[in-house]
Amino acid sequence: MAKFPSAEWIAQFQEELNRNSAYEDAARTWEGDFVFLVEPDSPGSPPAAFYLDLYHGKCREARFLSDPSEKVAAYVYQGKLANWKRLIQGELDPITALMSGQFKIKGNMMKIMRYTRAAKELVNTAKRVPTEFP
Amino acid sequence: MWFFTNPRIVLGAGSIEFLASLQRQKALLICDADVARLGIPERLADPIRRGGGQVRVFDGVVADPPLENVEKALGVAREFQPDLIVGCGGGSSMDVAKATYALYERPDLTVYDLHPLTELKLGSRALLVGVPTTSGSGSETTWAVVLTEGPGGRKLEFAHRELVPAWCILDPLLPSTMPPRVTADTGADALAHAIEAVASDWRNPFSDAYARDAVSRILAHLPRAVRPDPPLEVREQMHYAAAMAGMAFSNSQVGICHAMAHALGSIFRVPHGRCVGTTLPYAIEFNFRSARERYEPLAPAFGVGAISDAQTMTDRLRRLWDAIGMPQTLEEMLGVGISEFEKRMPELVTRADQSTCVTANPRIPSSRELEQLFWAAWRGERVGF
């Protein structure tokens, strides 16, 4: 089991994503990189972050960032750790989570809203990674 | 956590008189040329003037309004400086009015900022009222605005809770002039809104309640509404049902029927209601295995004890469509040859796939499945995959 969030987890996620034919279909025209920012549930702990370079249905690069500001991406999807857990476990939908303020996103919203199927497949992929949450 | 947002509603024959009580200084009425030709803006202007207001009319809205439509209406608004903006007409006029209102209130924004994650804080300069003349898009009650990029361009789907009008006036005297073809198309749109709303992943008890009631009213009254000179009561039932269906889907979501319809309408320039009506049975058949339990409460409206399979619903719909002259296949609806349809297929699939309407559909189609759906609808084949 990979701990979330960790370098091991994102490596497994990338493998699963690149095996996901439904994601490849949904994101076949997508171009844009992401930082997924995991905010601590309580103050005092540092945030964690992943970087993903998503291009035409594949993930070209995925890594754990030791410093969230290390990479400037076209999109930043961020939320509290507890909400990331709920998202990955299927209790939250990635789009309604945005609309209810449980996650925030920076980037071109019109473009994001054209790829909601791809967004759901990103979450479906995360569910396939055997994950240990704190 | 979810939300339920709707306008305050004034209803009944002659309810446009309510506009007098708003006592606004300057009212901008936004409509299309057909509505203007019918004299409807003047009927709204009368109570506004009695309430002490001046009136300006922008009647340049076109079907499937392009962004330029909003820019023109906004130019009039910025010059006139209204404290009341009234969308008067079908969905196109309503959507132009909503977008104009938002950008008039917030000149620092563009239309692309009209999405749920922007904080709009509207309402400091004007009140927005929706007065529909069709039954209908339901846009007078919804958070959605649909514009187009231009002739042949894709549909742009915007939404924000603050785009729901403050008031909507449901006066059944206004849709009484709708010809049968428009009654059928707009009635089909309303029915699709309600049926898609109950199937949506974002459905909730409030949206379900409005949707069920809307389906019941529409199935009962649409056949009579499309005949010449229907009784006012029939128009009234359809008018309220369309608004209820709007509230249902605005607080739930539409689905692949609308995704396909937006793609078809934007490429082939066919009226939205006709696109929705023709594709609805195929969408139900596709969704059924994921939405069976969600459709079940519609059984009484469909006149059955239970909805045991998709055909229970789609056979009833196809009989209704036959009665109201709704095309049953895309081949019939589009009037183009198969080679033209095939040539446009990749763009149809892409536009449908990238529509926000897919987001909460109970069964998310792959691009291959979307193509199969379009072909099933072209040929009139039941969807069995």
Highlighted features:
heterodimer; A: 134 residues; alpha/beta; Nonspecific Lipid-transfer Protein, Chain A; five-stranded mixed beta sheet; two-stranded parallel ribbon; B: alpha/beta; Rossmann fold; Dehydroquinate synthase-like, alpha domain; two-stranded antiparallel sheet; 52% helix; globular
Q: Which helices and strands occur, and which strands form pairs?
A:
The complex is a heterodimer of chains A (134) and B (385).
Chain A: E1 2-3, H1 7-19, H2 21-26, E2 31-39, E3 48-55, E4 58-65, E5 75-80, H3 81-88, H4 94-99, E6 103-106, H5 109-113, H6 116-127, E7 131-132
Chain B: E1 8-11, H1 18-21, E2 26-32, H2 33-37, H3 40-50, E3 54-61, H4 67-80, E4 84-89, H5 91-105, E5 127-132, E6 144-148, E7 155-159, E8 167-170, H6 180-199, H7 205-225, H8 232-250, H9 256-268, H10 272-295, H11 299-302, H12 310-324, H13 330-334, H14 338-353, H15 367-379
Parallel strand pairs in B: 1-8, 2-3, 2-4, 4-5, 5-8
Antiparallel strand pairs in B: 6-7
Helix pairs in contact in B: 4-5, 6-7, 6-8, 6-10, 7-8, 9-10, 9-14, 10-12, 10-15, 14-15
Q: Would you identify the CATH architecture of the largest domain in chain B?
A: Up-down Bundle
Average pLDDT of chain A works out at: 94
User: What is the alpha-carbon Rg of chain A in Å?
Assistant: 14 Å
- Tally the helices of chain B: 15
Helix content of chain B: 40-55%
**Annotated CATH topology of the largest domain in chain B:** Dehydroquinate synthase-like, alpha domain
Domain module tally of chain A: 1
So what's the CATH class of the largest domain in chain B?
A: Mainly Alpha
CATH superfamily descriptor of chain A: SCP2 sterol-binding domain
Highest-level CATH class of chain A: Alpha Beta
Succession of helices and strands of chain B? EHEHHEHEHEEEEHHHHHHHHHH
Short synopsis of the structure:
The complex is a heterodimer of chains A (134) and B (385). With 134 residues, chain A is of the alpha/beta class. Helices cover 37% and strands 29% of the residues of chain A.
